Amino acid sequence: MNSLFFGDMHMRHISAIAFLILTASAAGAQTPEGSSSVTQPYSVGTSLFMLMNLADDDEPPHFYQASAGYQLTSKDRLSVQAITWRYYHPLGVSYGERNSSTAYPGHVREFGVGLEYQRSLPKHFFSSISAIPFVRRYYDTQGQKIGNGIQLYLTGRFGYHVGLGSHLYLEPSVAFNYWPVSTNVPDAFKTQDDRWHSYFLAEPGLNLGFKF
Questions:
Q1: What is the pLDDT at residue 31?
Q2: How far apart are CA 212 and CA 193, in angstroms?
Q3: pLDDT of residue 1
Q4: Range of 18's domain?
Q5: Is 61 in contact with 6 (CB distance < 8 Å)?
Q6: I need a surface site. Which of 56, 81, 121, 124 has the fewest CB within 10 A?
């Protein structure tokens, strides 16, 4: 979800950080493969991409994410996710294509709460699906609100679970995002949206969690 709201240079920095964290932690911090009992059923988490809020950017993402999960079985987890963000270009803009010609005449601010189901796979991999309805607020270039709408945002994700001791864990992943419903879109915003698909492939994710 998150890469669409940061520039290509920022994404290269985050990718390098993610690679270093994954390499260092995978060396000796994995949870044993044979563990099957649910001894820590609860979890809370967030996205490390929130660090990009600290970057000096003319188009700040104001991206925040939090989740609370429950381990239904040793392989199945259900989570509630809360996300808010701001973006200035259509969600479907391809990598490297974001520029002044793709920009909205303003920006969109979204707030959403939804559900995610995650299934553990062999060798510490996992897959998940999530659905989040967002309340959208449209703003013009002067920052004045010009409308409200609703968006349904669906995500399929494939990733890798890295244990960081007995409680912390890191989950790098790649996602397929699809938004089949967007309502009350102002005409000038819709004109930009119509130039792109209503899906985005291969978006990286990097979540940090705490289980207890």
A1: 44
A2: 42
A3: 54
A4: 2-30+40-211
A5: yes
A6: 56
